[in-house]
Design brief:
heterotrimer; A mainly alpha (306); B alpha/beta (241); C mainly alpha (291); A: 306 residues; two-stranded antiparallel ribbon; C: mainly alpha; globular
Chain lengths: 306, 241, 291
């Protein structure tokens, strides 16, 4: 059986089925939605970080752009949810396009400039001067389109599409060529790989995923503030989950979300600072001792993981 | 009648700030020919390869490959059009397997990249036994060979070889020289930068001696060693007479 | 108004030079990005509150204590994490992630220990009444902080250009490989530069309450962006280029606050992105592009 098909059957399909039936077994739909959201975002981050080595610290900027693209479409343009989703996704991609020149920078500068860009978008959206469009710092309410069940299902559909795209990246010539760019851009160019184009495609795919996820998020929770949609914590979570599980694989980010976000929610969030401390320590420990994530315990021994 | 040159380099200039790394170098190469590029450190040999392979832009002169000027073409475009190179210190994709390293080049370059071709290439270079290992696990001689395999997998018509011999033992040297000759017999043109004169003597048809970004001699290596200018550059003025 | 904005911009520029200086020193010597820089600055500010609250210690004395203590803290921290990073393949990127983790830890611990309320020290501690410069009145605390910043820049200059260790440090900045090949004890040079980087962040922190107003444990990332804008404008890896970056930053910040105040908070982010895109080498030139 071809590897790609095997990954779809044994990884993508079970995850999507479980996510789809989970609301029938467990009542806390908001929590389930958060899981679906992070499963998707971690894979979106994986597309750019795992495959090209470029870490978008400001990934939440694209997510927030998607959320506000959705919100403005509903509030100002009066669009129905599905059209607003398309606008949200487009907003994410547009921001991604705007930031493509950053891909000429080497990795660390990309990461910092990306974070600065996310902050800038947040500052624009939350600026009281734009209150007529974005409602500024006062937040948006989209109660007229509120549909928790339907938006959850759309979230699962986005997750399914994302996982399929990642299964393709993991098993395609294009995905392998991207990894060559990550390893050594000059050698990759000499192997005939179009370095800048490859990075651009991966980044736009990543931006599309984040924009779409942001739009679905806006729809699902329907009342939110700029601080919610541009919470840097969202970038942090997506990064830590991906690093913890193992970037550039399909199951790494999945593992990361299930284990870490699972633990996070089981213990409960009484004092957020303690979690911040633990996550910080986890990042330091990972970089020092397990820079390639949990899956590297297997890959080091020459075992291929999906 | 001599065949149409595959590569024509004409009065090539490359500056770094005020320093002229290449100061009007001209030469040409025909298919099946092996040209050696020798000269002291800093004479511009590797810069020459970097410009021809598209890693550096140039500040003057022209490089014509298969009748077309390559001005403005990025490295990956040139790799697809038939120019490839090896690196002085090899830079394989360390966390990918040996086979994947070569596959990427075969898919993106001009090669057909069929499985049989790849197996043949790996076997020819004695890499087939390591095909499933990560490139980072190879020793440095094996990494050099993998670097060559990566270049060859793109099926180049012109191969630029940057100090391939350094670090190889005598037996490996002989084998490598034989491989390069064989590639030339198959019609590939090679530009070989090398310090080891024995290797140059064995492999090349003709040499260009460079100093300070200029060519000071062109011809047979045997004649070069009798050329007073070449002797002066290599051995200092005391030996010039 | 323009003259006032320009003058206060210059004063702020000197202060922001100090904010970026330590980050740039660490980057210049080790090619790693200390993303916890802003949090060490925040810790410097908290040290100053604490010393002032308990002992009414003058900020200048606090600054001296902070410089010594932070530099000493930097040495073991260096040996704990940096040699491992330098040995890794993509140390620049890994350092970014690692220090980001450290940044989160520092922010969390400070929040737990001191709470998240805003802290400040009254400006009159540094002298009452405004200072008149070219007919413009500037708060004494600003001018004082700017003076300390210039003194710190001078200190770094003397260290790099007048001492033996500084000369070795510059050698490492030019080429780590060659410096090691000539027998320089790389880790000793780097550890001291790392410690100094933290010490400089600490001093900048001591004066942060006067220049930036109140300080909270969460101020680190914001400071980082400002520090990055400063050093990217003024050339990465060139500690003295930081002065130029600081001045450009300070003056544009004050001009924005005077003429376009509701958008002034956008400045550091936009300046950083713009300079990276338009002139990624910084105003004095150094490569950061790869492809």
């Amino acid at each position: 059986m071809r590897r790609g098909l095997r990954d779809v059957l044994f990884v993508v399909l079970p995850v999507v089925i479980i996510a789809a039936v989970a609301p029938l077994l467990y009542a806390n739909e908001l929590l389930l939605f958060s899981f679906v959201m992070y499963l998707t975002l971690a894979q979106g981050l994986n597309a750019i970080y795992g495959f090209t080595g470029y870490l978008p610290f400001g990934y939440v900027g694209v997510f927030g752009a998607g959320a506000y693209g959705f919100a403005i479409s509903v509030m100002i343009l009066g669009l129905p949810p599905f059209a607003a989703l398309a606008i949200g996704a487009a907003a994410g991609v547009m921001l991604g396009l705007l930031l493509t020149p950053l891909l000429r920078l080497s990795g660390a500068y990309f990461a910092i400039a990306n974070l600065a860009a996310a902050q800038a978008v947040y500052q624009v959206v939350s600026n009281p001067a734009l209150q007529d469009i974005t409602k500024g710092p006062y937040g948006v309410s989209l109660s007229e389109v509120f549909a928790p069940r339907l938006s959850y299902e759309v979230g699962v559909a986005v997750l399914a599409a994302t996982l399929l795209a990642m299964a393709w990246l993991r098993n395609s010539r294009f995905g392998l060529s991207l990894q060559a760019i990550r390893e050594d851009p000059i050698s990759a160019a000499m192997a005939g790989v179009a370095v800048v184009r490859g990075r651009t495609i991966a980044w736009l795919l990543s931006a599309l995923i984040a924009g779409l996820t942001g739009a679905v998020f806006a729809w699902h929770i329907s009342v939110f503030y700029p601080e919610t949609a541009f919470d840097i914590g969202i970038s942090i979570f997506a990064t830590v989950f991906t690093l913890f599980g193992g970037a550039a694989t399909l199951i790494g980010p999945l593992l990361g979300v299930l284990v870490l976000y699972g633990v996070y929610n089981t213990i409960g969030i009484t004092v957020p600072q303690y979690f911040q401390l633990i996550y910080g320590a986890l990042i330091v420990g990972l970089v020092l001792f397990l820079p390639d994530g949990l899956v590297s315990l297997l890959t080091r021994r020459g075992i291929r993981v999906p | 009648m001599s065949p149409e040159p595959l590569l024509r380099v004409d009065r090539l200039v490359k500056r770094f700030g005020g320093f002229r790394a290449l100061d009007g170098v001209s030469f040409h190469l025909v298919p099946g020919e092996v040209l050696g590029l020798v000269g002291p450190n800093g004479s511009g040999k590797t810069t020459c390869i970097n410009v021809i392979s598209g890693l550096y832009g140039r500040d003057g002169g022209s490089v014509t490959f298969r009748g077309r000027d390559i001005a403005g073409s990025r490295a990956h475009m040139l790799a697809r059009r038939g120019i490839n190179r090896t690196f002085q210190s090899p830079r394989p994709f360390l966390s990918l397997t040996v086979r994947e390293n070569v596959e990427i080049a075969a898919w993106n370059g001009r090669g057909d990249g069929t499985k049989a071709d790849l197996d043949g290439l790996l076997e020819q270079l004695d890499l087939h036994r390591h095909a499933g290992r990560a490139a980072g696990d190879l020793n440095s001689a094996q990494q050099k060979t993998l670097d060559l395999a990566r270049a060859l997998a793109t099926a180049p018509k012109l191969l630029l070889v940057d100090e391939l011999a350094a670090g190889l033992n005598p037996a490996e040297l002989t084998r490598m020289a034989e491989r390069l000759r064989e590639l030339a017999r198959g019609g590939m043109a090679l530009l070989v930068v090398e310090h080891l004169m024995g290797f140059i003597d064995h492999v090349t048809d003709r040499v260009i001696v460079m100093n300070a970004g200029r060519e000071i001699f062109e011809g047979k290596l045997g004649e070069a060693t009798r050329d007073p200018e070449v002797i002066r550059v290599f051995l200092g003025t005391a030996h010039a007479r | 108004m323009l003259l006032h904005a320009a003058l206060s911009g210059l004063v702020f520029g000197f202060y922001f030079t100090l904010v970026g200086l330590g980050l740039n020193l660490v980057f210049g010597v080790m090619r790693i990005v200390n993303l916890a820089h802003g949090d060490f600055l925040m810790l410097g500010a908290y040290s100053a509150f604490w010393l002032f609250g308990l002992y009414h210690l003058h900020p200048l004395l606090s600054a001296a204590c902070v410089l010594v203590v932070f530099t000493l803290v930097g040495l073991p921290l260096y040996y704990l994490v940096v040699p491992r990073l330098l040995a890794a393949r993509d140390s620049e990127m890994l350092s970014l992630i690692l220090f980001f983790g450290l940044q989160q830890m520092i922010e969390a611990v400070t929040s737990i220990a001191f709470g998240t309320t805003e802290r400040s020290i009254p400006g009159r501690v540094l002298g009452s009444g405004p200072v008149r410069l070219l007919g413009q009145a500037l708060p004494t605390s600003w001018v004082f902080s700017a003076g300390v910043s210039l003194a710190a820049v001078a200190l770094v200059y003397v260290y790099l250009y007048q001492t033996r260790l500084g000369m070795l440090t510059r050698a490492v900045m030019v080429s780590r490989e060659e410096a090691v090949a000539t027998g320089i004890d790389l880790h000793r040079v780097c550890a001291i530069a790392f410690g100094l980087g933290l010490g400089l962040a600490g001093i900048a922190g001591v004066f942060a309450p006067f220049m930036l107003g109140s300080v909270t444990p969460a101020i680190g990332p914001e400071i980082n962006i400002a520090a990055f804008a400063v050093i990217v404008v003024g050339t990465l890896g060139n500690p003295l280029g930081t002065v130029l970056g600081g001045i450009v930053y300070g003056v544009s910040l004050m001009l924005m606050q005077t003429y376009l105040s509701s958008w002034a908070n956008l400045l550091p982010n936009l300046l950083l992105i713009a300079v990276l895109l338009v002139r990624p080498t910084g105003l004095l030139g150094r490569r950061v592009r790869r492809a």
